[in-house]
Amino acid sequence: MPELPEVETVVRTLEKRIQGQEILAVHIRWPGVIEGQSPEEFARRLTHQHFRVFHRRGKYLLFDLDRDMLVVHLRMEGKFYVDDPGKPLDRHMHVLFDLGNGRQLRYHDVRKFGRMSLLPLDTDLTHFHDLGPEPWDEGFNAGYVYRMAHSRRQPLKSLLLDQSFVAGIGNIYADEILFACQLRPGRASRRLTHAQAARLVAETQRILSEAIRAGGTTIRTYTSSLGVSGRFQLQCMVHEQKFCRVCGSPIHCRRIGGRSSYYCPHCQK
DNA sequence: ACACTGACCTGCGAGC
DNA sequence: TGCTCGCAGGTCAGTG
User: Which residues neighbour A28 within 8 Å (Cβ) at sequence distance 6 or greater?
Assistant: First the structure.
């Protein structure tokens, strides 16, 4: 499931592959993926625009075109491919973009959770979808984390998954960040100390940076699009592990905030 | 106002 | 072997 590092990898890969390409036509095979307007209107507006600038906000992919911004959320299993138009389509290939260079950008999504829409080019992304700061924003600092943690009555795991707290973290990296901080996912947010808040900022930035450098991850079934398989070298320390890679204790798994959460009861307090 | 639950989807693996 | 059931999880609407 794509989280911030996987989305970043997809954006950078697509930038290399299709930047500057004109959209000649759009074919929508499953209309539910289009939000905010009819599929016909969506296709009509995209036609003859070019892919100009590639960026990301949280887990959203953002493509600046000539007149509109194409916004895509991959949710659980959304993937992009750049293929020869003659290549056979499977039943999960939902949107096809014919490109000026004769190739086809293809959106694939087994579970149909992903969405795409068009927004004005000048849309302010600061509070886009109520997203909080990016992990490297100045605003994401120890003081902010401490204040936010103490303003809620939620476990730490739920806080990390809250996109209005910090943008881009999903279930897997949340577990990994908390392991690196030696904090249990079920620990009450309001028990966080200043020192722990500072460490949370540092470990979040470190883990996400390393994952981006490794090209995302293949944790579980997700491989980032385009045959670019993530090779997240630092691997999961706890998520879906049986034994702690530090102390060897059995890893516990319990549901916190409705999500399966993995932690080492010996290393995490 | 905050926090939790279910819906959206499909594939897969466990259990009978 | 074949069926049913539960689970995977990001986001948002709905509920308490």
Answer: A34, A39, A42, A43, A94, A95
Closest CA to A226 of A96, A108, A57, A49: A108
Domains of chain A: 4-126 (3.20.190.10), 142-263 (1.10.8.50)
Protein CB footprint (7 Å) on chain B nucleotides = 2-6, 8-11
pLDDT under 50: residue ranges of chain A: 219-225, 227-234
CA A83-A89-A92 angle, 5° bins: 110
Q: What angle do CA A15, A16, A22 make, to 5 degrees?
A: 65
Q: Residue A82's Cα: distance from chain center in Å?
A: 20
pLDDT in tens, A213-251: 887 765 444 444 454 444 443 478 888 888 899 999 999
Determine the distance between A213 (CA) and C16 (C1') in angstroms.
Answer: 44
